[in-house]
Amino acid sequence: MIQSLLIANRGEIACRIIRSARAMGIRTVAVYSDADARALHVRQADEAVHIGPSPARESYLVGEKIIAAALATGAEAIHPGYGFLSENAEFAQAVIDAGLVWVGPRPASITAMGLKDAAKKLMAAAGVPVTPGYMGETQDPAFLSERAAEIGYPVLIKAVAGGGGKGMRKVEAAGEFADALASCQREATASFGNAHVLIEKYIQRPRHIEVQVFGDTHGNIVHLFERDCSLQRRHQKVIEEAPAPGMDEATREQLCAAAVKAARAVDYVGAGTIEFIADASEGLRADRIWFMEMNTRLQVEHPVTEEISGVDLVEWQLRVASGEALPLRQDELSIDGWAMEARLYAEDPATGFLPSTGRLDRYCLPDEEIRVDSGVEEMSVVSPFYDPMIAKLIVHAADRAGAVDALVGALEGTAVWPVKSNAGFLYLAADSEQFRNGDVTTNFIAEQGDALIPPTEPDAEILGQAGRHLIEAYSDKSRHSRDNELLEGFRLNRSRDTTLVLQSQGTNHVLAKVPDFGGHTYSSGAGPDLALVTKFGQSFVIGLPRYSAGGHHAHDGDILSPMPGRIIAVDVVAGQAVTKGQKLLTLEAMKMEHTLTAPFDGTVAELNATAGAQVQVEALLVRIEPVD
After folding, report:
1. CA dihedral in degrees (37, 42, 47, 51; nearest 10)?
2. Which tens digit of pLDDT belongs to each residue from 96-128?
3. What is the pTM of this model?
4. Active site members
5. Is the N or the C terminus of the chain less surrounded, counting Cβ atoms within 10 Å?
6. Residue 143 CB neighbour total at 10 angstroms
7. What is the DSSP letter of 556?
């Protein structure tokens, strides 16, 4: 058995590998870049080695540095995780040539499955069904256009060296083909250094079904059943589950047998995934499921397979790499219940899913007993240099309905701030009727559109929770007496005209009372005179309340800084007339921009903001006087 292991990766997958290695008594070595000097995987490993600057091309993608770190620390083996160098056959061979154990498939297997066109030819020869299309060497545009017409529109142009949706274009009609081909080839060249493409029949109701396979050096190959990864955004998986909804035993048997046949065709060793595309227009049928590609590594979504099979796939990888036979035979493997995984990313659905970076001042996951695979913790920094995954939330239940309920419950209790996250988006997707019914194709997110984008403004329930939290915080008599009186006045509801004004991202919200409601919000202090409230995974920071007794008063127009930050733009001048909702200035805080707007029609009576200035929380930036 391997005694010491270097993990040539970072973040969540590095922590995941460390967990299994530690349980097996294996010493672990982490590698890290400048950006990851204080990362969780670095602190969890037994030893850590610095390998270079923050950009991956200068650290995690430099194979020579990783091999040197393994040799210097006495590591016997290298586990590549996924991404980075995990499917680089040259790196795998270099590891072996250095006298180290490569925890992965043979380099020849990686090469055989590395190019989509060559892999499909190999699979067709092995008797594995492949999607109708053209996979030849001729790349003349006119010739490719003729092949597309023969296949029948719509077609899909795909870069043979592609991945992650890059170098891929759907073409609806012949007149669009030339431009789509040129665009696809340019992107493929820029991303992979290879402009070669193939053409496939585009499946109208596609399901993405994949099979986990595992081989050892003794000639044994098994499958660990299928996963459904159809819920995707721009060809990136969002929520995965196992087994696949609507998969009958006969279809499962044929599909998994084809996956094993594919693995045998390349003499496969270790963990791998055979990916298939299914035409679900008539349900899942074995004669309408075709091979797409093979991932010669551990997959991001491997936990759902672990949950239904009871197998630790990383442990299996390490045992197989040590020369052991597979721990279980095919007839000893079975499906137990249903599992789902949601990928929690640091990205903002409201801005087209742009990545969000910064420190995780609040990173609170639900109390429910779920599995969380994560590479960060509260106060960790989400770096702009790498994939913005925060965590994977994994649930397991007796049946699919139970798994959906567990996943929805986990997402609604997830709080992330000030970094934006896709938790609210995931919640809306998982709780949708279509997903609950298992009627999801790879087009689901595009078809749902804005229905899956969570609200960016707090509703009355959220504002009420914030108001209650702040009132309770100000009940401490050590607080300034004036503020105490204002809040106590609101609490006791001394006047029917009493109102409470709360601020969220510079917008004032007026409450006539603090409403009562039940249990889908979470609040906590987020700083002086601030409350963080999360509802269905969407987090809001609500500012210090202001009290009035009817009508607009001067302090209603006080625009205060909701948190420490830097003013990056001022859009008004003193004395200027403004209308409700008009942009006054922009504050940058925690690497996010916050637009502060006018709470009502009025005049800029006081302006204390200049571009470039640093301001503290609660600083008075602008005062708006109401129109008489």
Report:
1. -50
2. 999 999 999 999 999 999 887 788 889 999 999
3. 0.79
4. 297
5. C
6. 12
7. G
Decide yes or no: CATH 3.40.190.10 for domain 552-628. Answer: no
* CATH number corresponding to 132-201: 3.30.1490.20
Beta bridge partners of 623: 558, 606
Same fold, 206-452 and 552-628: no
Cβ-based neighbour number of residue 454 at 10 Å: 18
> Other C-beta atoms within 10 Å of 72: how many?
12
206-452 belongs to which CATH class? alpha beta
The one-character DSSP state at 479 is S
According to the 3-state scheme, what is the secondary structure of 29-84? EEEEEHHHCCCHHHHHCCEEEEEECCCHHHCCCCHHHHHHHHHHHCCCEEECCCCC
* Cβ-contact 552, 536 below 8 angstroms: no
* CA-closest candidate to residue 36, choices 16, 56, 19: 56
Domain layout of the chain by residue ranges: 4-103, 132-201, 206-452, 455-497+513-546, 552-628
Dist CA 25 CA 142 (whole Å)? 60
Over residues 493-507, the mean pLDDT reads: 61
The tokens describing 415, both together, are: 């709080």
Residue 292: how many CA atoms within 13 Å on its side-chain side? Answer: 24
Per CATH, domain 4-103 is 3.40.50.20: yes
Sequence-separated (6 or more) residues with CB below 8 Å from residue 274 = 210, 211, 213, 258, 259, 262, 263, 291, 294
| Nearest-angstrom CA–CA distance, 542 and 530 | 6
Distance CA 300, CA 13 (A): 8
Structure tokens at 369: 């007993």
Would you list the DSSP string of 316-362?
A: HHHHHHTTPPPSS-GGG----SEEEEEEEESEEGGGTSEE--EE-SE
Per-residue pLDDT tens for 392-421?
Answer: 999 999 999 999 999 999 999 899 988 999
